[in-house]
Design goal:
Chains C, E: It comes from Paramagnetospirillum marisnigri. The complex is a heterohexamer, with 2 copies of chain A, 2 copies of chain B and 2 copies of chain C. Chain A is of the alpha/beta class. Chain A is 35% helix and 22% strand. Chain B has a 5-stranded parallel β-sheet. In chain B, helix 1 links the parallel strand 1 and strand 2. The chains are: A alpha/beta, B alpha/beta, C alpha/beta. Chains in contact: A-B, A-C, A-E, A-F, B-C, B-D, B-E, C-D, C-F, D-E, D-F, E-F.
Chain lengths: 119, 102, 126, 102, 126, 119
């Protein structure tokens, strides 16, 4: 089954991106496909290349990047939401790409299920 | 085909769970995650409401979120099923749409 | 527009539960809704709980320094987005009537809203 | 000396206002801002509670936040005073501490 | 430490109203509390509403991939932060008793908590 | 009177930083002093130099910068909260400075009133 995932909140402040990551990992382990993870609202902050969380805590951005590396998951950051909040090509972590909101609607159409994580 | 509703907010703080219960259809699945897992525990002020809801809906709670908050999955309200992230994925696959009550 | 025309038409519902201005969700959901129009899907907008405040008439956020995006709801019709639903119980709780709303909507009871939601293929909430 | 309490969440969505009303001391000032201004309007399901609260506390609402949301400051519950940002500053200065009910 | 010793001692209260793990506030408030210890102020911690869950025993967030910072509450005593208050009504609503809490606290009624809050000079809530 | 201000949330997603800015402006207009504005939690995101909100909307970061320029208001971003979220010297907007959480406690001690804006 093809899942689309929408992440509405930034890392650390809300559990949303952690929950989304755990869901994605479990879906892949069960042999499902992740069609796309779309980052919207403050969710775009998951894609910063500049975050340095304490070494004894998880690194949310790195978690997403590893998922992209290991399973070729498509990580898409909304361009408009990113511009508003200062997530742009210059500080985009490798593994993420910036694109339009249409990519979210497309995920809703193409994926069998769209799962949202937010506040 | 039924719907999976996810709720992630504490029932003591916000109206998300109430709004979900007010709109879900009989037989729908409801999964409590993150700070909504408090609603699953027996002995709270909302336990009676949850026991009632279990008669109409298929109630689930995410075990990892319960354990994170120091609650024993064995102490949930009767009728609530504890699942892990794999169970969350299965619920999402078995229902036709997922409605997140944010 | 080739890539947007997949031949698949799904029932999309944007469920608005949050008030405008206090948080950005109302504005950014509206941006989603406008984009969705390009994909020829069967788009529904539901206003329940505090989401009803999004379509309150007379919004004037100049003094709080925030953009007034509420006229955009009136423009939805031009994008062929005409299925707007508001919940009666939520209006009553907030002391609002249809006259307070800036766009024509279909008023549904909570029970009817629940049934309509159950028909959707994709539900986007914020 | 009294305290200024600020509340910024909708009374229909969250418990912030209730928690504030449950802890504030008689004579304290309460200022509704942002999404809490809905609580100030007459004719809602919480208007009775606010009218009662006005007997115990000095209730205020931020006019700019009311207008932003399309509400007429003239339509507030009796006993609620409408202030602008300058009035917010004065309330903060006149009370010994500010307790934000986040 | 010279700049921290202003000679002024204020009554500070950190009011915790939010559950841990679902949001970061509990963790980052704790970081504030630890820093405050260096300033020789009269520090109080209040746990009300969902904030009571912050000091629930047995937290084990390994499976959600999040750091378990709850042992830090036990370390507060070492920083001479010993004025911890929990609200009785909030515990009852949540089905919790003092035995469920991982640190010694003073249990106050809601009315007592309100009176204590009113004595503070600086109240930090999250 | 000396006010300290604490901003707990990032720009745009919550009204908190807008409200804090309007409060600060009104306080200065009434002749009060702003001892310091401290940005904590997601509030650190107010200090990004990379944000480009739509031209018809307000620019929250620029609002703060103008306040700092015109009134020498001390805008302090928490170093630990910023590191976690990717607000560091490299993308810090001019007018803000990065420092420790002790600066917030100091504001609580030195200011006559501390006012918090958050979620």
């Amino acid at each position: 089954m093809k899942f689309g995932i929408l992440v509405n909140e930034g890392p650390y402040n809300h559990q949303a991106s952690d929950s989304a990551y755990q869901f994605a990992k479990a879906a892949l382990e069960k042999g499902h496909e992740i069609f796309r993870v779309f980052f919207y609202y403050d969710g775009v902050n998951n894609a910063t290349s500049l975050g340095q969380p304490p070494s004894d805590d998880r690194n949310v951005t790195k978690n997403w990047q590893k998922l992209a590396e290991d399973h070729k998951v498509d990580l898409v950051v909304c361009v408009a939401a990113g511009l508003r909040r200062g997530i742009v090509e210059g500080n985009l972590a490798p593994g993420f790409r910036i694109s339009g909101l249409g990519q979210l609607i497309e995920a809703g159409i193409q994926a069998d299920r769209l799962v949202t994580f937010g506040d | 085909m039924s719907v999976l509703h996810t709720v992630n907010k504490s029932p003591f703080d916000r109206n998300n769970l109430d709004s979900c219960l007010n709109h879900a259809q009989p037989g729908d699945a409801i999964l409590l995650i993150e700070d909504a897992v408090f609603a699953a525990m027996a002995g709270t002020a909302v336990a009676g409401k949850m026991a009632d809801a279990a008669k109409t809906f298929r109630l689930h709670v995410l075990g990892p979120d319960l354990k994170a908050r120091g609650f024993d999955p064995a102490g949930v309200v009767t009728g609530v099923t504890v699942v892990d992230y794999g169970g969350f994925v299965e619920l999402a696959a078995q229902n036709k749409a997922i409605n997140a009550w944010l | 527009m080739d890539e947007m025309d997949s031949g698949i038409v799904k029932k999309f519902m944007f469920v608005n539960r949050k008030a405008p201005h206090g948080t950005v969700y109302a504005l950014e959901v509206l941006e989603m809704v406008l984009i969705s129009a390009a994909f020829d899907q069967d788009v529904h907008l539901a206003f329940i709980d505090d989401g009803i405040y999004q379509i309150k008439k007379g919004q004037a956020p100049a003094e709080i320094g925030v953009k007034n995006f509420s006229p955009t709801y009136r423009a939805l019709e031009g994008y062929d987005i005409e299925k707007l639903y508001v919940e009666a119980e939520g209006m009553a709780e907030r002391g609002l009537t249809e006259d307070d709303l800036l766009v024509p909507v279909e008023v549904l009871s909570r029970a009817e809203m629940g049934k309509l939601m159950a028909e959707m293929d994709v539900v986007l909430t914020a």
